[in-house]
Design goal:
single chain, 57 residues, alpha+beta, globular
């Protein structure tokens, strides 16, 4: 597991920081913490902001 940080590409806002096995898993974990089953279930308005997962470690 690695530590990932997810930021919006449009404004640099940090949306989530936590551990995940890869970037896609990090995006899914962020969505689950927000109450959605996975990243694909997030509203298009959120996905359109371009969330980007970066490994911190």
């Amino acid at each position: 597991m690695s530590i990932f940080q997810i930021k919006q590409k449009t404004n640099g806002a940090v949306l989530w920081t936590g551990s995940a096995s890869d970037a896609l898993s990090a995006l899914d974990a962020m969505a689950r913490e927000a109450g959605y089953p996975d990243f694909a279930a997030l509203p298009e308005t959120i996905r359109a902001t371009g969330p980007e997962a970066s490994r911190l470690d």
